[in-house]
Design goal:
Layout: H1 2-28, H2 35-88, H3 95-117, H4 126-140, H5 147-169, H6 177-193, H7 202-227, H8 239-250
């Protein structure tokens, strides 16, 4: 969380410093454009700002959907692990398999989540998950495990495996570097336009600059937070896994 706050403050500070520098430059060295030229530039800037706003808004919507998908995915993974644990209770020799499931859920909801908060794509539970798989293979070979229950456990385990892979792929973000470059390039262009666009009224100019920068920086903050759903100020916590782990542990490990 500290890294997110530090990054946000650096971006805000850099943008405000650049905007202040442009504003002071305009006062020291006027652009020399007449009202007609300024109106034409303002019209062109309106077209640019519309495109840029649409781009930012679209990115926010896409990442918000991805964030909601990640939250749903975590809930489904934890629920499937709990269901797997309950189904296996019908098998007399399922002790090692159930213990492996319990250990895996415990690692994910604890140390594993701490790693994901640090944007590490390895939650440290890989070895425990492999043990779950090997325990399931041994269990399905036991005479006490009927084929119907064994197949149900296998199908459930395949779903858990797929969900785990999807969860880890979402840890380090979905926006590629070129998209971030376009976002910050748009900020730079917006600040540069402040040098040429002025109303002749100092208070109105300051209000316009603050309004634009607040909206742009607010969207960038949302993009940065939603892009990494397991870290930052806006993040998905281990609540679902903690609840599943508590239920599994209370049922007798």
């Amino acid at each position: 969380m500290f890294d997110d706050v530090k990054f946000s403050l650096i971006v805000v500070g850099a943008v405000l410093a650049a905007a202040l520098a442009v504003y002071r430059l305009r006062r020291v060295r006027h652009h020399g454009m007449d009202m007609g030229q300024r109106n034409l530039l303002a019209t062109n800037f309106g077209f640019f700002s519309t495109l840029y706003t649409f781009f930012l808004g679209f990115a926010v919507v896409v990442l918000w959907q991805s964030y909601n998908h990640a939250s749903t995915l975590v809930a489904a993974e934890a629920e499937n692990i709990l269901v797997e644990y309950r189904i296996s209770s019908e098998i007399e020799e399922a002790g090692p398999f159930r213990q492996a499931l319990l250990d895996y859920a415990g690692i994910v909801q604890g140390a594993g989540w701490d790693r994901m908060r640090q944007e590490q794509t390895d939650d440290g539970a890989g070895a425990a998950f492999d043990l779950v798989w090997s325990s399931l293979r041994r269990l399905r070979r036991q005479p006490a495990c009927d084929p119907g229950t064994g197949n149900a456990l296998l199908r459930q385990m395949i779903e858990i495996d797929a969900m785990r892979s999807q969860r880890l792929r979402l840890v380090d973000g979905n926006l590629y570097a070129p998209i971030w470059a376009l976002i910050y390039l748009g900020v730079a262009f917006t600040i540069a336009v402040f040098y040429f666009v002025d109303t002749g009224n100092q208070r109105a100019d300051i209000f316009f600059m603050v309004m634009m920068l607040c909206m742009i920086l607010g969207n960038i903050f949302l993009l940065y937070e939603l892009n990494t759903p397991f870290s930052g100020l806006i993040c998905i916590g281990p609540d679902y896994f903690q609840e599943a782990y508590a239920v599994m542990k209370a049922s007798g490990g």
